[in-house]
Amino acid sequence: MAETRRPIVIGNWKMNGLVDSAVELEATIAANGQGAPCEVMICPPATLLFPFSQLIQGSALRLGAQDCHMAENGAHTGDLSAAMLSEAGATAVIVGHSERRADHGESDAVVRAKAEAAHGAGLTAIICVGETGAQRDAGGAETVVGTQLEGSLPSVLRAENTIVAYEPVWAIGTGRTPTIADIEAMHGFIRRRIEALQGDVAHGIRLLYGGSVKPGNAAEILAVANVDGALVGGASLKAADFSGIFGIYT
Ligand code: PEP
């Protein structure tokens, strides 16, 4: 089934940025003009969501958060609920990033519960999956990613509230990327897998590639079939680099 999927480029600032990073945010807003042909989103640390929400008013730039708790409220010291992130200005939240899966032991079931919490608060869930280098070397990349999809995706999805990001763990922050053929094969696999799990909604869900995307390799990667945008870490911290990536779509 043919579907129009509007591309989206998302910057994940991770644990980087203070209020004076607004200079970079403003440069990104300026580079985005009245809105590029793709959507552009920054996911800053949660402390910056509210001040940044004031700065982006009137611009096409969107804000997302980097994680949420699965519960609506309660005794969870230091955590933030999806509704809190929404109130602070986020319209989306990343769940299941490999750094959360590794650093905080987040299982597929936890990632699914967080994605459901995001949906419950009206946020788009950006659900991350991806294999380690050892898993790819052992020939198990598709098995790992297929299992993560099966365990992490909520049972009810809409194309408008769900984005899936394929981020091979070995490519994150390393400067290494899969071959174009490998990206195409994995994105095709992910689309088919979501279709097998959820049916036709799979054709409207945007699939992002993430892992060492830079201005120099973005054109080639973003042109791949079933790549509907990128999740960008390091290169999103400098507006010039980030706009060199989403600017590919103009
Ligand atoms: C990420 O961590 O989501 C990511 C894609 O990082 P980088 O672009 O720095 O590899």
Chain-wise SSE layout:
Elements: E1 8-12, H1 22-32, E2 39-43, H2 49-55, E3 62-65, H3 82-87, E4 92-95, H4 98-103, H5 108-120, E5 124-129, H6 133-137, H7 141-152, E6 162-166, H8 180-198, E7 206-210, H9 215-222, E8 229-232, H10 239-246
Parallel strand pairs: 1-2, 1-8, 2-3, 3-4, 4-5, 5-6, 6-7, 7-8
Helix pairs in contact: 1-10, 5-7, 7-8, 9-10
The protein binds phosphoenolpyruvate.
Structure characterization notes:
With 250 residues, the protein is α/β, with parallel strands linked by helices. The chain has a domain at 38-47 and 79-238: Alpha-Beta Barrel (TIM Barrel), CATH 3.20.20.70. It is built from ten helices and eight strands. It has helices at 22-32, 49-55, 82-87, 98-103, 108-120, 133-137, 141-152, 180-198, 215-222, 239-246; strands at 8-12, 39-43, 62-65, 92-95, 124-129, 162-166, 206-210, 229-232. An eight-stranded parallel β-barrel has the order 1-2-3-4-5-6-7-8, surrounded by six helices. Helix 1 (22-32) packs parallel to helix 10 (239-246) and helix 9 runs parallel beside helix 10 (239-246). The two termini are 26 Å apart. The mean pLDDT is 96. The structure holds phosphoenolpyruvate. Residues 12, 167, 172-173, 210-213, 231-235 line the site of phosphoenolpyruvate.
